[in-house]
């Protein structure tokens, strides 16, 4: 680049006022997000910038409904699945049965979209009774991108563990739902036992991953829709965040 | 919800074929992303699902150019800034001068958009010579959302540290650029010294944050556009990922 080009550069740098051309956003609370900022709110959720949040901002409920029901959610999930698969294929497996991958269940292996459609896509606060009734139905469909990844991992020789925030009393319904939606041959399904109740998800899930590591498993990959599925300690070599703008679990 | 509603539910669950209505995406390499998946690729970058990548996929260069130049980037940054600010205001400062916030510089405090506009928004591989020439100009404008946050943090009483992957020989140009674009009163500016060369950014930055902690600083917040600004060890209480779909630093 010659000096003339550099000068043009400098001029464009000094006139980069377009970055300021919109008045600065005021965001006093998540309840007052202007609707044209909903996509940015969603990004903040997916990157864990949003921190803890209780419900989808009212101004963004329509946006979330459209996102979840349309092509964007499916495409975003597909890309996560393909990137997970590309990583999995790059792993050199030891082949002793200790090459592990950990999956969360809700909004990861199974989609509760039919349930959340019914209750307005995150607008309502989480209702445990109503969700428990839905779980009992064992009717959640597989998330297609995760289903495809799950099967490929087993073909590649990974040992698959399921680690969910659901509780032991939901074991039957959960296993039934997994089998009905086509999942099989997982090594172990972890649910919250009595001693796990009340723990933050990231603590409970870190403890279970640490158990696996102490048994000699190498956790290469971990798939989940919540940052609390993926962080903490005993984290996987690669963690994959599946989109979920409907709810937040600490 | 009565049993009739549950039945409707079940039916909608069993017919959730729309999740499968598009053929599954094939993504053999980042070089072959269908252009209608570029937004999903960007999300994968922002959530750290993409792992290491060398350049923007050719099919997504136009998408990235439009994203960076238009409203979306500015809005996404604004929301990160406002969420950072909301967190900062929630921190109870001890007030002993050890309440710290760490900022990265490039694409965090300063925007190199004029430079990347010139070289085609990430399509070209990173060219150190050309970027060094740009740095020497000290002409990068402030990222407005970070500028606003930076000033608010100082008003609130945080001690601000700057931690950049730039090298010591760029100290003068970097300080000049920061001052010209309006930043002032940072406590310390860390640049890579001779012993830091060749280290992955996450190692170098973790080491520097650990130094601060050993000096008694409490790192409440950390702002950066790369996951390697934020992860590793001695991580902040809250980390804020600023968007950057143009390049990746391991």
Overview of this structure, please?
Chains A, B: It comes from Cajanus cajan (Pigeon pea). Chains A, B: One of its GO terms (molecular function) is nutrient reservoir activity. Chains A, B: May function as somatic storage protein during early seedling development. Chains A, B: Keywords: Glycoprotein, Signal, Storage protein. Chains A, B: This is Acid phosphatase 1. The structure is a homodimer of 250-residue chains. By secondary structure, chain A is an alpha/beta fold. Chain A has one domain: HAD superfamily/HAD-like (Rossmann fold), CATH 3.40.50. Chain A is built from 10 helices and 5 strands. A 5-stranded parallel beta sheet of chain A has the order 3-2-1-4-5, sandwiched between helices. In chain A, strand 4, helix 10 and strand 5 form a beta-alpha-beta unit. In chain A, helix 4 runs parallel beside helix 7. The longest helix of chain A is centred in the first third of the chain and has 20 residues. The radius of gyration of chain A is 21 Å and the shape is globular.
């Amino acid at each position: 680049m010659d000096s003339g080009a550099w000068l043009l550069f400098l001029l464009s740098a000094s006139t980069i006022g377009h970055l300021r051309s919109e008045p600065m956003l005021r965001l006093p609370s998540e309840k007052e997000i202007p609707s044209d900022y909903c996509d940015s709110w969603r990004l903040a959720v997916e990157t864990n910038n949003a921190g803890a949040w209780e419900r989808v901002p009212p101004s963004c409920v329509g946006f979330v409904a459209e996102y979840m029901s349309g092509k964007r959610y499916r495409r975003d999930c597909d890309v996560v699945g393909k990137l997970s698969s590309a990583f999995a294929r790059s792993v050199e497996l030891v082949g002793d049965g200790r090459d592990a991958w950990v999956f969360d269940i809700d909004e990861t292996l199974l989609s509760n979209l039919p349930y959340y459609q019914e209750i307005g896509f995150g607008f309502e606060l989480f209702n445990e009774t109503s969700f428990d009734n839905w779980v009992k139905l064992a009717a959640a469909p597989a998330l297609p991108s995760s289903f495809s990844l799950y099967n490929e991992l087993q073909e590649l020789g990974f040992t698959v563990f399921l680690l969910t925030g659901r509780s032991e009393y939901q074991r039957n319904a959960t296993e039934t739902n997994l089998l009905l939606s086509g999942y099989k041959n997982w090594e172990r399904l972890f649910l919250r036992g009595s001693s796990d109740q009340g723990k933050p998800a990231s603590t409970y899930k870190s403890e279970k991953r640490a158990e696996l590591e102490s048994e000699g498993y190498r956790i290469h990959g971990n798939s989940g829709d919540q940052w609390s599925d993926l962080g903490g300690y005993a984290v996987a070599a690669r963690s994959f965040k599946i989109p979920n703008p409907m709810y937040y679990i600490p």
